[in-house]
Structure formats: C-alpha cells, structure tokens
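Students often ask why we bother encoding 3D structure as a string. The short answer is that it lets us treat folding as translation between two languages. Here is a chain of 88 residues written in the first language.
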Amino acid sequence: MKPRYVDADRAEKELGQYRRDMVSVFDPDTTSVEHFRGNFAWFNDANYAYEVELIGEREDDPERGALPSFQLCKAARVVRCLCTPVVR
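And here it is in the second language, the structure alphabet:
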C-alpha cells in the first residue's frame, strides 16, 4: 500500500525519517489536537485524528527536528475519533 505522504519514499529510503512498519503518535498533552491542524504536513484538513491505546513501547521519532511529543510504536488500538476531515 502506497502511503498518502507524498515524500514518504524519499523520507524512508534516503533520509531515514519515516517508518511504514510503525504507527506515528503525536501526544498533544493537554492541548486540543484540533489546534495543531495545518501546522504539520501530516495533519491537515484532509486527515482524521484519533485517540489511541498504544500496543508496545514508544520510541522516539527518527525525523530530524522532531518534537519530544512525536513518537512511534508498533501498533495502536483506536479508542475514539477526535476530529474528522474539514469539508469546505
């Protein structure tokens, strides 16, 4: 399955900044996840965001410059949907 992230192949193969075998996790702490929509290439008006229960240990995100709140894990179970795509 081809990822939706346009530069995924380059990020994974050349830069080591993307992992298809992992779930990307963003922990906004106490801030509403909707606040971050449009602030990152991977979270825009076309995306869903979910609260998840992590399966496995968290790892640091290999992306250069990744914030401490950006992490990876082997799998996650969806608890609930936090926001849906914006229809304009």
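Translate back mentally: The mean pLDDT is 79. Keep this in mind for the problem set.
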